[in-house]
Every structure is written in C-alpha cells, then in structure tokens.
C-alpha cells in the first residue's frame, strides 16, 4: 500500500515509530471478521460446489464451528449494534438500517471501549454502519484507528479514516485489507483487536473484470459471475489477513473469528439502478448450495438470521470441533471479555449475551437452557404508521433448545391478526412444518417468554428513541444531521417514496421537522440546509429554533441555504426547522435532505484554529490553489464517488504546500497525509514544504492541524498524477 513518494522538506520530518516490546504479550490478539450479506450457502466449507473459499474454509477447518449461531434482525446495523455492545439491538437505540434508526446511542459501551481500558490497541476497518455523526463514528467509540467504507460502493469511492476523507479506487475489499494489515504489522508487539467488518458481499454485486471473465467462461450468467468474482476477492483478502498473522509469528497468540451479519441476498447487479437476480439466475446460484434454508436477509427465518461462526486459536482450541449450542452476536463481547481479560462495568445497561469461552474449552455451560430472541427491523416504515408508544414488530422469534416459536404480526402488512408457528429445528431445519398444536405446553411457555422479552425491550431507555446529535465539538465543528433522524414532525411532510432520505410536501406553512441535539458548549452556530427548489418558487421563509434561540431566513437558493446565527446554550435541546411562509407559488421547495450545523469561532475562542487552509502551488504551471476547512464526515456521507478539488500534476513534479489560518500562531502541530500514509509532522508552521509523487493515479492530500489546546481540523485536496 505504501506509495512511491519522494519528499523534500525545509526541515527534517519527524516520523512516527510504533511501540516496541521485548516479548510477546500475555493477552491474546483478536482478529474479528464480519462479512456482509453472506450466509451459509456460498461457502465451500458448508458444501457449496460452485465457488471455492479456501481462506474461509481454513479458519473453519483449523478452529471451532458453531452450528446454531445467530445475528440480529437479519440486517446490517442491528447485528453490528449487538456485536459491539453484547446487547439486543433494540436496547442500543438501533431499530432499523437507515432513517436515523442505525445509531448506537453514545452512552452504550462497546467492546473496543473495554479493550482500551484493558490496555489493547484497537482498530476497525470496513462497514461501520453504527452512526454517522459527531460522537458516533468508530474513532469516537473506542477504536484508536477507524476506517469507514462508503456504503454500497465497490470502485472509485471514498473512505473516512479518523476524520479524514480519502478517495480510493476499488475493489474496496482490498483497501480495507491493506489498512487492516498495516494496523496488525504496526501493533505486532503489543496486544491488539482488529475488527474487520467487510463491506462485501453486500449488493450491488461487482468484481474486477478478470474475475468476471473467469466465471463467465465457466458458463455463469453475468449476475452470478459478478457475485462469484466478488466472493473470490473477499476470500483472497481474508487469506491475506490470516497469512499475515502467520507470517508475523502471531498464530498462537491470535484468536481469529469469522461470522456474517445476515443471510444471503439475491442482490442488485453493478448499481441499484439495475435489477435483482431473476428466477433463472437464482436457480443457477442455488444449484451450488448444499442446502437451502427458508428465508433470506431481513427476516427471522433460518436463511435470514443463521450465521456461520468459526473461531480459530492455534494451539488453544480443539481443531474441527462443532458446537451445537444456540449462540449469537450478543455473545461476542462477553466472550472477548473472558478471552482478553476485559472488565464489564456494572451499569444500568445490562449485557444480554453470555461468554462462549467455556464452550470453546469444552467445559460445561448453562447455555443449553438459554432462550434466544430476535425481531425484524422497521426499515422504510414511516413513523406515521408506527405506534411509537408500543411499536408493532412484523416478525419476532424465540429459540429454546431445538424449538423455535415465530410470531407474525400482520398489521404492518395491512391485515389484522397475529399468527404463531412452532418449528422443531432438530427435525425440520427448513421450517416447513408448523407443529404449533402438537406441543401446547411448549407453545404457551414460549409465547409468554417472547411477550415478556419484548416488554423488557420496550422498557429499555434507548428502545425506539431517536439519536441525539452532538454539536459544538471543535474537533468536528460541523455536525452532520441526516434529515431522516427526526424525533418528531408536524403537518403534511412525508418521506420520499424512493429512498426515504428526503422530506417532500413543503407546501403548508407550519410544516416542521425536529431533532434532539446536545450542544457541547455554549456558542454561536448556523446551519447549511440542503434542498431542491425550483427558481419560480423561491422567496419563502424558514424558521430555525430551539427552546432558547430563534432565527428566520429566506429560501433564496435552489440547492443550499445558510441560516442566520443562533446563539445556543449548552445542553440537550430540540432543534426545529419549520416552514414559515411559501415562496412565489404555492410551494416552498421540492424536498429537503440534510442539515450541517456549524460552530462559529468568536473572539473568546482564542485557542481555536480559525479558517485553516492548505495552499498548493505548482511552479512549473504557475498554478496556485487554496482549499479551506474540510467537513470530512459530511462529505463522506453525502458523496459516494471521488470528492474534493482535484489538481493535475506530472510524475515527480514539484508540489509546494503551505498552511495558513487567520490565527496561525495557535497551530501547535501540522500533519500531512498522502492517501493513508503520514509523510510529515512538524510543531512549526512554515512555508516551502515540497513533495513529489511518482505513482500515477488519484491521490488525496490531507493536512491536519492541531491547536495549542488540542483541537483538530483539516483541509483536503486531490492530486491526479498522469503523464
């Protein structure tokens, strides 16, 4: 991954060196691999005859396999919430996969928090999907290094790494692995946890051209060929991870865990604008499966929620052992606590999972008597259709020993009634035979247990509660509020039927959206509001207010509005945006999508870097460019392709960089990054830093500034190196 960069600085570069230790640590390292939308069926270890996955198979064959392991809600964000916290996802505030329902509330504790307290170095690389605003990113939740890949983009996309945006070319799976391997190498002499939630094989299916051709030559349709190519890239990268652990001599001191977040998906091909697999393509794919379970991702049948789980720890665990005990992602945190010596705090947020460590060692456990619960998520169901006092769930189940009770609520499908099904999975893994009337005592016990569990979920303090957006952090002074994360709305506003991420019907004064915010420090703020409006409709007014502050401003632009200043007190409050008056016609705008709330430095904020810039000068072209502060998380969440100002340069062309701010004397440190590599760090800010880049292609330059009081901010520019 290292670039061929030739750097000439005015003074010596201070390079970062990793911590060294004289001997191996006593505490084991952990590599935790989570794959998206994979399921049992497309793994050759599980009997697939059409696609080979040797790297994944090796983890299974050299480790312990759980045969009854479950995710949460058969979906991305719920599974991540349970895995990170050891709690059922509803408790954490996660009750969907988008629409602001995918934020783990900030007072939840993650396994990374506990690991850091126990002296571990922590890294997360891949699909985070557990919150996308200030305080919710991976580097805010216990990870020393956090790389977050942009959802559903395979090539020519961008990633966010510790609050820096970096443009990358695909496959994104390679980029994730490159950074995970670098983390492992840098921390080989200490205790680390490397969490790798791969974005593959989530739709849309895509792969490099050579692999597409390979599978086409074997006779597969385009759709299946791209899927199999995508799986091969994934497996190759998992092999790179395990081989690196072996190469570094860490096998006997590293636990490798493999699991997925939900069952197989039929999947879009290439982009979301093309179709999913048709019946013929599905049949072609299924021919390779050893068995076909009922259901798929996003439901609670076995095909949607059952996950392969392989755990390898060379020299410590019995090779080839299979464990039939019911287990799941809620058990990962307490298992890591036992493996690594974490201390689980005694709080009012109880852990639901139980440690699997005794089972791994072959010891007795009370887990055989457990009840395991789950439910589907409320994706794309508007709050208008949900009784938020007691939300209805479409599907729930409880698993106890070999029995599984499924509860179907037809209300959300426009019908009345509740149905129960009971399956004996020891005889009917495909859930084809409802034995509800054959075991009346078991039926009633499981019904009562499931009802009590759901009541317990509803009584949890975060259940079905919107997240609270943090504003006023000088490290991320612009807070991204994704408009769909509302706490309430009034009037006739509705979500766009296509994506759910926009609000339409801005045609009645009084229509409003409200959000819960936590102002970290009293100060001046303003908001950028992103809209789509027709020129003929401009002229209306919006109000932006909390309980303590108010402003109104005109709708005077078709794409982005800037509010007047609000002076906000510290603390939790409700931020409301309301239509005050219509424009020149009977409509104010077509839709509203996002809000970006900015913290404004004032005269009293003397230790904050004001208006930082990176200046780029190309002597050979007599070209000068200035780029201001980068709001990286917002740009990352709203731009899936290449982002930022791009300057063309030739290989080895001199590029002069300098850094400035209105109060440059408050900058205590400047760090310069080319793509993922830090190439320069200085405690002095001087002009004349020169670099030359030899490698062709697009490179992202990030300048990160640290103030004397420790606050950080950055500027970003791209260099396209071509002959």
Question: What is the CATH C level class of the largest domain, in words?
Answer: Alpha Beta
- Portion of residues in beta strands equals 25-35%
CATH homolog superfamily of the largest domain:
Alkaline Phosphatase, subunit A
What kind of assembly state do the chains in view correspond to?
single chain
What coarse outline follows from CA principal-axis ratios?
globular
Largest sheet: 11 strands, mixed
Sequence stretches where pLDDT stays below 50 over 5 or more residues:
1-25
**In CATH terms, what is the fold-level topology of the largest domain?**
Alkaline Phosphatase, subunit A
How would you characterize this protein structure?
Strand 37 (697-707) and strand 38 (712-721) form a beta hairpin. Strands 2, 3, 4, 5, 6, 7, 8, 9, 10, 11 and 12 form an eleven-stranded mixed beta sheet that branches. Helix 1 crosses helix 6, helix 4 runs parallel beside helix 6 (222-247) and helix 5 crosses helix 6 (222-247). This protein is α+β, with helices and mostly antiparallel strands and 723 residues long. The protein is built from twelve helices and 38 strands. It has four domains: 26-370, Alkaline Phosphatase, subunit A (3-Layer(aba) Sandwich), CATH 3.40.720; 392-459, Arylsulfatase, C-terminal domain (2-Layer Sandwich), CATH 3.30.1120; 468-600, Sandwich (Jelly Rolls); 613-721, Immunoglobulin-like. The longest helix is centred in the first third of the chain and has 26 residues, at 222-247. 48% of the residues are buried. The model is unreliable at 1-25 (pLDDT under 50).
């Amino acid at each position: 991954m290292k670039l061929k960069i030739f750097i000439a600085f005015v003074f010596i570069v201070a390079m970062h060196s990793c911590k060294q230790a004289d001997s191996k640590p006593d505490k084991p390292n952990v590599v935790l691999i989570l794959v998206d939308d994979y399921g049992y069926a497309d793994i050759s270890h599980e009997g697939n005859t059409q696609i080979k996955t040797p790297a994944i198979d090796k983890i299974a064959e050299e480790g312990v396999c759980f045969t009854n392991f479950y995710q949460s809600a058969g979906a991305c964000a719920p599974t991540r919430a349970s895995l990170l916290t050891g709690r059922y996802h509803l408790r954490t505030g996660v009750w969907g996969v988008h629409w602001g329902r995918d934020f783990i509330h900030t007072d939840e504790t993650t396994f990374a928090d506990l690991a850091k307290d126990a002296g571990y170095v922590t890294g997360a690389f891949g699909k985070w999907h557990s919150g996308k605003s200030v305080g919710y990113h991976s580097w805010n939740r216990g990870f020393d290094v956090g790389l977050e890949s942009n959802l559903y983009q395979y090539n020519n996309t961008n990633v966010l790494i510790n609050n820096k945006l970096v443009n990358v070319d695909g496959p994104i799976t390679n980029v994730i692995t490159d950074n995970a391997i670098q983390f492992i190498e840098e921390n080989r002499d200490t205790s680390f946890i490397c969490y790798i939630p791969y974005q593959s094989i989530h739709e849309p299916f895509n792969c490099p051209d050579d692999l597409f051709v390979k599978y086409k030559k074997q006779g597969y349709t385009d759709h299946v060929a791209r899927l199999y190519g995508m799986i091969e890239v994934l497996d190759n990268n998992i092999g790179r991870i395990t081989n690196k652990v072996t190469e570094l001599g860490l096998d006997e001191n590293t636990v490798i865990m493999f699991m997925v977040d939900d069952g197989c998906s039929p999947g879009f091909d290439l982009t979301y604008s093309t179709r999913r697999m048709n019946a013929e393509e599905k049949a072609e794919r299924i021919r390779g499966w050893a068995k076909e379970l009922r259901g798929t991702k996003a439901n609670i049948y076995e095909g949607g929620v059952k996950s392969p789980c392989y755990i390898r720890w060379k020299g410590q665990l019995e090779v080839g052992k299979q464990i039939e005990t019911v287990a799941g992602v809620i058990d990962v945190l307490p298992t890591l606590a036992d493996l690594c010596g974490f201390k689980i705090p005694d709080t009012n947020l109880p852990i639901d999972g139980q440690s699997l460590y005794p089972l791994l060692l072959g010891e007795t456990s009370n887990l055989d008597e457990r009840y395991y619960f789950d439910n589907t998520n409320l994706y794309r169901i508007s709050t208008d259709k949900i009784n938020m006092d007691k939300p209805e769930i479409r599907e729930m189940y409880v698993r106890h020993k070999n029995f599984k009770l499924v509860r179907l609520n037809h209300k959300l499908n426009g019908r009345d009634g509740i149905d129960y099904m009971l399956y004996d999975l020891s005889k009917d893994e495909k859930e084809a035979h409802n034995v509800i009337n054959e075991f009346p005592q078991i039926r009633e016990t499981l019904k009562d247990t499931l009802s009590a569990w759901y009541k317990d979920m509803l009584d949890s303090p975060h259940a079905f509660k919107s997240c609270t957006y943090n504003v006023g952090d000088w490290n991320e002074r612009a807070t991204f509020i994704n408009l769909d994360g509302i706490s309430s709305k009034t009037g006739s506003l509705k979500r766009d039927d296509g994506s759910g991420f926009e609000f339409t019907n801005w045609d009645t004064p009084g229509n409003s959206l409200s959000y819960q915010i936590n102002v970290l420090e009293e100060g001046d703020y303003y908001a950028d509001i992103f809209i789509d409006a027709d020129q003929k409709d401009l002229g209306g007014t919006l109000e932006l207010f909390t309980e303590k502050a108010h402003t109104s401003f005109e709708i005077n632009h078709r794409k982005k509005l800037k509010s007047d200043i609000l002076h906000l007190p510290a603390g939790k409050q409700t931020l409301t945006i309301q239509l005050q008056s219509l424009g020149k016609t009977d409509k104010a705008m077509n839709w509203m999508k996002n809000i970006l709330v900015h913290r404004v430095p004032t005269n009293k904020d003397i230790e904050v870097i004001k208006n930082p810039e990176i200046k780029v000068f190309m002597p050979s072209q007599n070209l000068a460019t200035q780029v201001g502060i980068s709001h990286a998380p917002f740009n990352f969440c709203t731009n899936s392709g290449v982002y930022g100002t791009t300057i063309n340069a030739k290989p080895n062309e001199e590029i002069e960089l300098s850094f400035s701010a209105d109060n440059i004397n408050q900058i205590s440190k400047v760090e310069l990054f080319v793509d993922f590599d830090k190439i320069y760090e200085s405690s002095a800010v001087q002009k004349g830093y020169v670099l030359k880049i030899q490698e062709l292609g697009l490179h992202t330059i990030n300048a990160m500034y640290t103030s004397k009081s420790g606050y950080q901010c950055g500027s970003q520019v791209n260099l396209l190196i071509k002959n």
